């Protein structure tokens, strides 16, 4: 247990300092192996790499196709078209809602979170400028739409955080739909009303919209975007609907659903064929880092699973009073927080404990769908701590700092999702899921 705790601390501290999990995960796994009395080289070459390669083999096509899908939505301006339409429909009086819903539609349609940030930010600037809302609320608004319920709670989401539990619990993306909808509603309404409260509060203190320091660059970017052809909203939303419908209504594998979405984007934008190769290359290249990061975390979980102290860890988690869903929620949340990654933390937890929770579900007649949904929602709680990669990217793109905007991100992407998770487990206790 000492080795496991030290390994987790090393992983958490070094990840917080911004060091890549690609190389700190093997170091942390080595500490766990030594603490467990295992051979260091064998633990790395066999145990760690077996977990690493096994996850990559299972999920690399999904990571790659998802990244390509998002990149094509970006370069064809289809993502921008969806955002612009939401801005037109809701107007400046509902600027925050427009930003949240734009991010929601794109994320639920399968666009990667990082692409969503790039696509929605220009719309957010325009709406917030017109409504004279302090710019520091933009990160929280985007985070609410992209980093919370659409990522891991709402049933049918094609995001990886909703797909990973399927391999451990033999479930579908629609697992525990009532719990997912309840949690999603709490996150959406709780986050939105919090942001509106913050808007009124900041304005009462005299704070209004402030132009970015790179305003001139921003203006030139906007002018160049105006020259771009923006596809019609109906055409732009078709690929998103295609992925979601094929995945959930026709029960196609996520790989097939994403392939169909990609092909539709290519067909609808055939006149831009010269840009396709570069976009596909960029998407495929970007997916490599994402899959390796998560695979590294899963490899760490594989080593934890084989050391003698692992049984003590299981006993400790399962000794938590109440439903085993609570211990699963605690395990996934803590590991997601330690790694600064929703998929990475869930990967470690389920690689180490997934089989045990499956046995508990079968022996105690608890629906495996509940374990799926609790794992998925839990991955989106403590993951959004200050060292999270998506949080750092969001702040960089929006030109904000932790001091100015992290409080709002924390409330909408950490505190409220944890409260939503608690509510979901309570409803599940009464058989509502």
Search tags:
0% strand; 20 helices; 433 residues; mainly alpha; globular
Could you characterize the architecture of this molecule?
With 433 residues, the protein is mainly α. The protein is built from 20 helices and no strands. It has helices spanning 2-16, 21-35, 40-75, 78-90, 95-108, 113-131, 138-146, 149-152, 160-169, 177-204, 215-227, 233-248, 254-268, 276-306, 309-318, 324-339, 342-363, 368-379, 389-398, 402-429. Mean pLDDT is 90; it is low at 216-226.
How would you concisely characterize the structure shown here?
The protein is mostly helical. 78% of the residues lie in helices and 0% in strands. The chain is globular and about 60 Å long.
Number of strands: 0
Question: How does the helix and strand content classify structurally?
Answer: mainly alpha
The helix/strand order is HHHHHHHHHHHHHHHHHHHH
Largest sheet: none
Helix content: over 70%
Could you list the spans in which at least 5 consecutive residues all have pLDDT below 50? 216-226
User: Could you give the distance between the termini?
Assistant: 35 Å
Strand content: under 5%
Oligomer classification: single chain
Mean pLDDT: 90
The rounded Rg comes to 21 Å
Tell me, briefly, the overall form. globular
Question: Number of helical runs?
Answer: 20
